[in-house]
Amino acid sequence: MMSINEASKIAIVTGGASGLGLAITKKLVQSNIKTIIIGRNENNLKEVAESLGELCTYKVYNLQDLKGIPQLIQEIVDEHGKIDILVNNAGINQKKHFMEVTDEDFQNIIQTNTTAVFAMSREVTRFMLEKGSGSIINISSMAARYGIPYVISYTAAKSAIEGMTKAMAVELSPKGIRVNCVAPGFIATNMSAKALDSDPERKNKVMSRTPMGKLGEPADIAEAVYYFATDAAKYVTGVVLPVDGGNSIGF
Q1: Model pTM above 0.85
Q2: Which of 154, 226, 227, 235 is an active site residue?
Q3: DSSP of 76-109
Q4: Is 249 inside any structural domain?
Q5: What is the pLDDT of residues 126-137, one digit of tens each?
Q6: Which of 73, 94, 224, 235 has CA atoms 20 to 30 A from the CA of 136?
């Protein structure tokens, strides 16, 4: 059952047209939350928005263009009146041996996964402060929970996200804006299937250290994000929640 309190809420989900972002978008829309998805592929965005109905709209935008983010957020506020929820989900990954990662490789991952999250959060916060409430949910990774080889840039970016979550929460929570983070474990998506199926050794390692003995589902992440987004978590801030079947504590 949707909560009557969610009926007039406005949410933004970056990368909301595919993977975990799509699952999050579906959950918010099904809960009667007007959701604006942001991404680069207009065909995907349009298809998702049309399939989910009038509570889902989209903006085509490349978050690496940091200078345009203030205008993007202003446009959304002009069109929808406010922003109650920001889900910083968009991200890119790169699998490369440490010594093969160039400065450009590293900066590219950091700009999309960390700097854009900072810029989006800052601009959305300007409007959340005006009404004295809001919920920002960042998406981390197991790469920030323990060392994983060949993803140095991604690890640096997601570790920064967890630190930013805590720092933002301390500064913004007294002003009514809660900031939390979901750290997905190994989730059954097309991307993870390709990565793990092509690397049996890594797949065996993932499964052997996951106490629940299975991959998670995108909906598991969506449920955690929804919890942080709503009044069910009204006294929760600065939390990094692993949704990982126990992977981060597995032996």
Answers
A1: yes
A2: 154
A3: HHHHHS---EEEE---------GGG--HHHHHHH
A4: no
A5: 999 999 999 999
A6: 94
SS (H, E, C) 155-221: HHHHHHHHHHHHHHHHHHHHHCEEEEEEEECCECCHHHHHHHHCCHHHHHHHHHCCCCCCCECHHHH
Q: Catalytic annotation on 150?
A: no
Question: In b/e form, how buried is each residue of 203-227, taking b as 16+ CB within 10 angstroms?
Answer: beebbebbeeeebbebebbbebbbe
What's the CA gap between 185 and 56, in Å, rounded?
27
Chain mean position to CA 237: 16
Residue 152 counted as domain residue: yes
At 176, list the tokens. 């009514």
Q: Residue 117: inside a domain, yes or no?
A: yes
Q: What is the pLDDT of residues 74-100, one digit of tens each?
A: 999 999 999 999 999 999 988 899 999
**Torsion angle, alpha carbons of 240, 148, 24, 189, to 10:** -150
For residue 120, the domain's CATH number is 3.40.50.720
How many domains are contained in the chain?
1
Distance CA 116, CA 146 (A): 24
Question: Which structural domain range is residue 34 located in?
Answer: 4-185+221-235
Residue 81 lies in a domain: yes
